Amino acid sequence: MAAPVSSEERLFSLLLALSAARNGLSRAEIFEFVHGYSERFVHGESQANMERQFERDKEALRALGIQIETIDSPDEPGNNQKARYRVQPETLSLPPETRFTGLELSLLRLATYAWRDSLNEPDARRAAMKLNSLGDNFDSSMLGVNPRITTHDQSFTPLSAAIADHNTVEFDYQKPSDAEPARRLVAPLALEKLDGRWNLIAYDYDRAAPRVFLLSRITSSVKISTMEYDVELLELTAQTLQDLNELRAKNIADVLVAVGSEALARFEPMSDMSPSFIEGAEAGMKLMRIHFLDALVLAEDLIAYGADVQVLSPPEVRERVIALLQDIYENHSTGAAYG
After folding, report:
1. 245, 277, 305: which is the final residue of a domain?
2. How does DSSP classify residue 23?
3. Which pTM value belongs to this model?
4. Which of 120, 176, 253, 279 is in the most buried spot, having the most CB atoms within 10 Å?
5. Has residue 178 got a pLDDT over 80?
């Protein structure tokens, strides 16, 4: 089975084909002969998925400032299946005053590689494709350098790829209130970093509603389906984010934090007030008012700083912190003796 063609590779192949064909290419010719499409083309079968892919690819090229001409068939004007598409080669040329040295071009390419596993992956792919079109003026001193900005959640990369291609996904998800993980079939809409943790905003088909999934609670590999979801579902993203922000604004924890500690630097961006001393607090402790989305997630973050933090309220966060610390104590006090 042939390896899947990446989005930037398919876009670059399409760009080359459209700029090389003086008289343009029809959709049928693109699907049959252009790398990235031809691997999936089967004579006599529906090309609906590739039709949608082609529309997205045209929009991606236009977003790069590349104008695609549509040449109507003289026999059937307005018929998309008979229309031909082309890119004038001169539109790909840089202005005379814009030139990159080999070192500059290499650094730009390395920047796109660094973001391959991030939330900005779609933009990085398009940037890489545009840089490749400038030629092979690569600085050999950069060979072997491949910076990457990565995340700790293994599900991040496949989810990012599924979002870029609008594919549905399946995975097992462990809710704290459930004894076992549950299988979820969702349309992944966006990845957002909230309160220092990566979250997936998605449409859950079984529940027929948008849901937010903490990536650290995904317990299985992410299975990407070939089924594409309706792009209109993306409209749910803004409302879901608004709901999350409203929830976060309502959830407030009062926490004492040690002055000069890592905890102070970690939680100050989440606070709606500057750290302040309060009467009755231990020496060297300041009060912080922290907004949060999930009481358990906040509790898990707080216990990592040990005695540098003390939870005053609300009770559910304080109780979760105590329960987590008790679990740690029990797990470390009943282990087998060495020797």
Report:
1. 245
2. T
3. 0.54
4. 253
5. yes
